[in-house]
Write a structure and sequence with these properties.
Blueprint (H helix, E strand, L loop, with lengths): L6 E3 L16 E8 L18 E2 L5 E3 L7 E8 L5 E8 L5
Antiparallel strand pairs: 1-4, 2-3, 2-5, 5-6
Length: 94
């Protein structure tokens, strides 16, 4: 269930099946910050930020703060390099 302060995040697009599962050899990671994190194709995500593996897709994040940014990166499991990604402002259930 989604409770007050929770955010549901769903990643979709090329490299992610309709079931939410990344294609073979790819993984989803996210980072929550005060500003959007820039991603560069074929480079490792910004190492100064904390990146968390998405254990599911969609995922429910507990106790979030509205107005923070979430950046989701689809990465190559072997190299850790970004294949694609994006960011948005968190919307929190009131």
């Amino acid at each position: 269930t989604v409770d007050d302060g929770d955010t549901v995040v769903t990643a979709a697009g090329n490299g992610i099946f309709g079931t939410g599962v990344p294609a073979e050899g790819l993984a989803l990671k996210y980072s929550i910050n005060d500003a959007a994190v820039s991603l560069s194709y074929n480079a490792v995500p910004d190492a100064t930020k904390t990146w968390v593996a998405m254990s599911a897709n969609p995922i429910t994040l507990k106790s979030q703060t509205a107005g923070k940014y979430i950046t989701v990166a689809l990465v190559n499991k072997q190299t850790g390099f970004v294949v694609s990604g994006g960011n948005t402002t968190l919307v929190v259930k009131a």
